[in-house]
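>> received
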Amino acid sequence: MNYKEEQLRELTLEALQQLGDNATPEAIVNFIEAKLGGETKSPEAFESKSGERVILTAFGMNHPGVIASVSSLLSEKNCDILDVSQKIMQEFFTLIMLLDLNNASVTLKELQTEMNLLSEKLKIKIYLQHEDVFRSMHRI
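>> returned
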């Protein structure tokens, strides 16, 4: 079934609000699929990955230095930012980046670990997913 982007966005925001600190990408997908009556799929089911493009999503309470910290870490690891979208909604910060890791000095797993440390320091949520997993999760 195809759903309009706005419908999925509203369901995602509802999921974020209801899940709170438990709002992992997998939990959000499960929430949305339950609302739509679909089956739950785990990201591990999508093993074939092509290329090294990665989606970074970050959100939390806004404060100075969030984008600088994230982009500095990406620069240190030689990650190429292909596209970026950032929005401040009152006191909330959201960020989505499309990254190319072909020339990165770390693996995706290592970068995820580094971003987890940074997210704790900044007191925000940061998720890093391979593009194939992201596409599969958001094709509801």
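>> Residues 5-19 form the longest helix (15 residues).
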